[in-house]
Amino acid sequence: MIDSSVERPPGQDRERDLLARSRAGDAAALDALLRENLPALWRFALGMTADRSLAEDLAQETIARFISGIAGFEGRCRLSTYLYSIAHSVFVTQKRRDARKDDVHRRWAERERPADGTPDVDHVLRALGELEDDLRLPCLLYYVEHKSVDEIGEALSLPRTTVKWRLHQARAELRARLKEIEK
């Protein structure tokens, strides 16, 4: 039984309604759910892969897996968290299978810096891309997608303390990398 005295975050009722309608076969409801969640999912995928084409493939595979298993989503977390979890799982599986990690990191390392050496988004993306996945992914979810430590833990199957430690380590490494890039 749901405690009606507990306020749900804005949009959660809408999400639950759209999910119920999607499970019942309402294509318009499924389309609305996907349209609301695709931009954040794509940004997360781009952050993981550091490649637009791979990010599009990852987002598409994530959506396909979500649609094929929509009945299995119990709604114990936000849909965005569930999609991040699927995307992370797909990414790890693909990465292991294809051994693309070194290639992704090499491409990030080869990116050109602006001539004036000023810090910009490309510098931050480059530094972020050089982080190991276990540090980069929590960082993306926390700072780009504004997810809580608990939501990150749920999406990446990590304890809260591990997420906090990884965020701390990621900040330290990003600071050091940005200092090197800015030189």
Describe what this molecule looks like in 3D.
This protein is mainly alpha-helical and 183 residues long. It has a single domain (12-182), classed as PhyR, sigma-like (SL) domain (Butyryl-CoA Dehydrogenase, subunit A, domain 3). It contains nine helices and no strands. The longest helix is centred in the first third of the chain and has 23 residues, at 27-49.
Key structural traits:
183 residues; disordered N terminus; single chain; mainly alpha; Butyryl-CoA Dehydrogenase, subunit A, domain 3
Question: Could you provide a short overview of the structure?
Answer:
The protein has 183 residues and is an all-alpha fold.
**Can you tell me the CATH class?**
Mainly Alpha
State the CATH architecture.
Up-down Bundle
Query: What is the typical, i.e. mean, pLDDT?
Result: 83
Our count of helices gives 9
- N- and C-termini, Cα separation: 59 Å
Biggest sheet details:
none
What coarse outline follows from CA principal-axis ratios? elongated
What is the helix content?
over 70%
CATH homologous superfamily name? PhyR, sigma-like (SL) domain
Radius of gyration: 18 Å
Unreliable segments (pLDDT under 50, ≥5 consecutive)?
1-8
The percentage of residues in β strands lies in under 5%
CATH topology: Butyryl-CoA Dehydrogenase, subunit A, domain 3
- According to DSSP, the number of beta strands is 0
Tally of distinct domains: 1
Helices and strands, in order, run as: HHHHHHHHH
Kindly name the structural category: mainly alpha
